[in-house]
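FAQ

Q: What does a record look like?
A: Structure on top, sequence underneath. For example:
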């Protein structure tokens, strides 16, 4: 059985995984999920990226939105607002609340996040092994102007959802990452992988945060297997989301080639760019990363499965080289 490990953020990673599962139905897929977006609200622990993967692969996602539950209602949120209890800018629905209640209850009982995630996945049967990158608390903060001539750090969700990434991000800080340990199963999955895939997730706040957990980069390098990625940037703009805003914060231009160079040939063996960026292939290959231009728009599951097949065949090429 082919063992595929995918480092995933939320929407982009989850949608890619749906295609990968279709493209490689017999493979064992392990997902290392970003937990830097996690936030504590109303006494509950919310894990947006883990939940987005779980709901997307488990058939419970709000498809149009890409996050949260289908057929959602917002009674609890409205009741909280009636008490003047916020934040109102973060849309937690009633069905979604149940997930956070179960999670928080289990964490309170002493289970680590990895065990809680496994328990939640027993309901959703995502068809992959979903592991948080770490059981430790890591919280991505973004440094923005404070409006009084200074700067302040805000939680990633405040930057992303409340501020809509519309203000300049001066720095992105994965707070706590330097003290975090990989969750159980993460290093084993990397060590026994046949291929490691970076889906078109955010290179800074999703994959970058996962790579900030000590031991992860080494685990990937030591695996000695092809590491292939798919560009989240098409034609100099993010496919969706606001990846360009946080790329600017780390000084990386918003181009498919620059993202590959940001990961670097020490980490990445192969890179897929969209056909619109075919002229980037030469620059990426000049940096020692095998590169192909293929359609990268995840318009539907067939198109996404085709992308996943291209990634796996690029990995084969890397291995044969
Ligand atoms: O744009 C939004 N994204 C929301 N997201 C998505 C999330 O903010 C980000 O897209 C990810 O963290 C980035 O991967 C949610 C995800 C959840 O799992 C639960 C609740 C939310 C709520 C919002 C929201 O109100 N607005």
């Amino acid at each position: 059985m082919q063992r595929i490990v995918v480092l995933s953020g939320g929407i982009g990673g989850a949608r890619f995984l749906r295609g990968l599962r279709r493209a490689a139905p017999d493979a064992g897929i392990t997902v290392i999920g970003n937990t830097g977006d996690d936030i504590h609200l109303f006494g509950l622990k919310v894990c947006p990226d883990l939940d987005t993967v779980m709901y997307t692969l488990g058939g419970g996602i709000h498809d149009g939105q890409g996050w949260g539950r289908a057929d959602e209602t917002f009674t609890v949120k409205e009741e909280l607002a009636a008490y003047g209890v916020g934040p109102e800018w973060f849309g937690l629905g009633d069905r979604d609340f149940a997930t956070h209640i179960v999670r928080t209850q289990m964490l309170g009982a002493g289970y680590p996040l990895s065990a809680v995630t496994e328990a939640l996945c027993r309901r959703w049967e995502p068809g992959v092994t979903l592991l948080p990158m770490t059981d430790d608390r890591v919280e991505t903060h973004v440094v923005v102007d404070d409006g009084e001539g200074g700067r302040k750090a805000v939680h990633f969700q405040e930057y992303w959802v409340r501020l809509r990434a519309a203000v300049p991000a001066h720095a992105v800080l994965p707070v706590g990452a330097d003290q975090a340990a990989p969750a159980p199963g993460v290093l084993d999955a990397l060590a026994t992988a046949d291929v490691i895939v970076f889906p078109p997730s955010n290179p800074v706040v999703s994959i970058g945060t996962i790579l900030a957990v000590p031991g992860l980069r080494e685990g990937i390098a030591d695996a000695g297997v092809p590491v292939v990625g798919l560009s989240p940037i098409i034609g100099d703009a993010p496919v969706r989301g606001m990846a360009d805003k946080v790329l600017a914060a780390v000084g990386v231009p918003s181009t498919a080639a620059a993202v590959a160079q940001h990961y670097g040939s020490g980490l990445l063996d192969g890179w897929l760019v969209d056909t619109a960026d075919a002229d980037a292939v030469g620059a990426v290959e000049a940096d020692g990363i095998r590169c192909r231009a293929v359609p990268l728009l995840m318009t539907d599951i067939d198109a996404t499965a085709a992308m996943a097949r291209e990634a796996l065949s690029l990995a084969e090429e890397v291995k044969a080289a």
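Q: Is there anything notable about this one?
A: The longest strand covers residues 139-145.
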